[in-house]
Amino acid sequence: MLTFLVACTTGNDESSEGDSSSDDSNSEESTDKEETESDEESSDTSSGNVLRLNNGSEPTSFDPPQGFNAVSWNALNNLMEGLTRLDESHQPAGGIAEEWDISDDGLEYTFTLREDANWSNGDPVTAEDFVFAWTRLLDPDEASPAAFLGYFIEGAEAFNNGEGSAEDLGLVAEDEKTLKVTLNAPTGFFLDLVSNPAFFPVNKAVAEENPDWHAEADSFVSNGPFTLSEWEHESHFTFKKNPEYWDAENVELEEVHWAMVNEENTEYQMYESGELDTAAIPSDLAEQLLDSEDAFFVDQAGTYFYRFNVEMEPFQNEKIRKAFAKVINQEDIVQYITKNNEEPAKGFVSPGFTDANGNDFREENGDLLTHDPEEARQLLKDGMEEEGYDELPEVVLSYNTSDAHRAIAEYMAEIYSEELDVDVTLENTEWNVFLEDQKSLNLQFSRSSFLADYADPVNFLESFVTDSSMNRTGWSNEKYDELIANAKNEADEEKRYEYLYEAEKVLFDELPLFPIHFYNQVGLQKPEVSGIVRHPVGYMELKWASKQ
């Protein structure tokens, strides 16, 4: 499961790449290795409440608006806290805000912050800290990949596009502990949205004194259940319980140690040897381990997919894109390669989102992509004729380093060779290099993942509007942009979903991407560990976790 999370979502890869969303990462380091190891041993013997997890790779950033992926935000979600926090039943509950009032028209939210909400350095968490952080999220000079998540706020999109000012934002610190937020339109999922790490506060005084406060453990200031006590970059990082956290009495873990291992089999070996308390299930051991007592299964709103760069040959041609998509059998991938009981994806929005009439979005919009090798061969032929190709330009399929990603890429390359008579070159790079190349449109054909950042289908689909930092395909469609804008400003839920249904169909009509499977969370967890909450939409919670 953690290996897959490293891919994002919401993307996320991404949107989470956020692809969160979701695509992003995290990291840490120490100065005296011997002393560190000694401290860890004494900690383990003095208290069993030390949890050992794998982050997969170095976090992209622990700066809330920048670390827009699961390898950053999964950990950050436990170092910091927003106005709300998703509870054990995955619903938004009071976080730094102990209460809130919503105006009758649904446009104004007034949050009252807890009097005992403090930063780890003892400073009070203030409404101005939220105004400062959210303004940074939206500031075009900051270039946050998560900025679009804030577009529901009045004046946010114009400010982020360089057409407005910070003074026009619907953000007001009425006093030290009162924050007023004005929205563009009624947004029923707003309390869920602000639990997302993009909306975490930042200690204004600390950040103004040291803009790199988030880059090292000794300068990091948190307001959540844990503090960042050590960070050996590209190696590991460590959390300790935060005594300044307003709800510290309900946090049982004393420490959390995070490794950075991106090889699935190595992670499993560390789990077997007791070096980790959770692990992904290697595909070659899936049959025996999925039935073990240690296995867990949790829903996950997200999609594993591939992006075409429509600005690079040959994928400027729609028929060639469709040929490369239709020849791939998603059922074979989940049955014989990933083997984690995933659902093959025939659309981009995952199951689990219900429209105004009680229908599941995925079921209602149906299968938008079908496996059809014969049609794929004809599409490739027609596309090559349209472009005047006697021979297809070289195709390079790129993925970030991971056993799981490599296995899928190798299968796809084999299918392209056998079914389309196309030789595809495989290329893998480490996460941060891969991500930057994808964002810069340097990759021709690349893997991605999206993990939902908030519980609404628009979060999936907004990633592909023109110029979105999550688009990463070069694709632009005026009708699509209009449909997403209409959906974001429509108060009538039935009409809003109609816009979203149509938008997804437009996306698949031109196919700048194609999906492989919807995510779930499958893995192994030691029986002595309990209370880890894995949200279907959101990030892992350790606040209620314990280890006996």
TrEMBL record:
GO CC list: ATP-binding cassette (ABC) transporter complex; outer membrane-bounded periplasmic space
Keyword entries, A-Z = Lipoprotein, Palmitate, Peptide transport, Protein transport, Signal, Transport
| GO annotation terms (biological process) | peptide transport
User: Where found?
Assistant: Cell membrane
Q: Name one Pfam family in it.
A: SBP_bac_5
Per the record's keyword annotation, is Lipoprotein included, yes or no?
yes
Q: What GO MF annotations does this protein's record show? A: peptide transmembrane transporter activity
Residue numbers spanned by region Disordered? 1-68
**Superkingdom of origin:** Bacteria
Q: Where is the composition biased (Acidic residues)?
A: 14-43
Membrane topology is: Lipid-anchor
Solute-binding protein family domain segment(s): 92-470
The similarity annotation says:
Belongs to the bacterial solute-binding protein 5 family.
Protein name, per record: Peptide ABC transporter substrate-binding protein
Naturally occurring in which organism (per UniProt): Allobacillus salarius
